[in-house]
Amino acid sequence: MRKPRTREQSAAATKEGILRAATRVFAKHGYEGGSLEKISSAAKSFDRMVYYYFGSKEGLFIAVMEDLYRRMNEAEMQLDLDLAQPVASLEAVIRFFFGYYRKHPEFLILLNTENQHKGRHLAKSPRSREFAREYSSPAMGVLAQVLQAGEARGLFRSGLAPRDIYLMILATGYFYVSNRYTLSHFLGEDLEDARSQADWETFMVATVLRTVTPAAMLKD
Predict the structure, then answer these.
(1) Which domains, ranges and CATH numbers included, belong to the chain?
(2) Tell me: the pLDDT tens digits for 134-164?
């Protein structure tokens, strides 16, 4: 026989259900349109439970954003990189970010929403500084190790700033995925097509590798 769930398990499931529902509702309707009524309905819960677990709509939105970063961070940590192969490792990092954006469009949608609000919600998080260190440092640290390994083997240029390469990877992947619908109309091609996405991923890899490769090693 199945054991009845404990009160703690039930509470955790309710909180998780509200968080998952809020992610979907905020991604679909934005912050303003993502009412507590819609979220409670999607979670099959009640408005009072949102207040109980998250304090307010803004508190719930902050929790959603922190959860998005946490899940991406956990996915990053699953990368199995061999620093003895820095080129292959850098390629894996690039492909990871582009693939993650494609698989989790809600992440980009909600990042855009928070940027439209000038980051004011995350800034109000009680643990905003701790949060930034916890979820940004690992990615930068891994990339720094890859770049250092490549430099030590003469495969990458010296003096590369991990921050710059990090932003380059994110910018090229993020822009393609977040703007794929309007760009498809503007360019007259389907950027959601698997071949188009594969071609862009290949271009991203080539662009970043050309940027980090010493000039003497580049072919004319």
Answers:
(1) 1-55 (1.10.10.60), 64-217 (1.10.357.10)
(2) 666 677 888 999 999 999 999 999 999 999 9
